[in-house]
Amino acid sequence: MHAKLLEILVCPLCKSTLTYHKAGQELICKADRLAYPIQDDIPVMLAEEARKLTPEEIEKM
């Protein structure tokens, strides 16, 4: 994930900054507890494609 791209991407729901999770190939919104997938190096920034994170996953990040 390019650092410049990560600087400008925000959560489409709450506009919070996102954290890159390299191992899971996801962009994480801690505020909404959502993980947006990255497919073929392209972030999929659709709420309906995001995965809900468990409280345990949030604590580990």
Automatic annotation (TrEMBL):
Pfam family, one: Trm112p
GO cellular component: cytosol
Cross-referenced InterPro entries: Trm112-like
Family of this protein: In the N-terminal section; belongs to the LpxK family.
Protein's name in the database: UPF0434 protein NTGZN8_50044
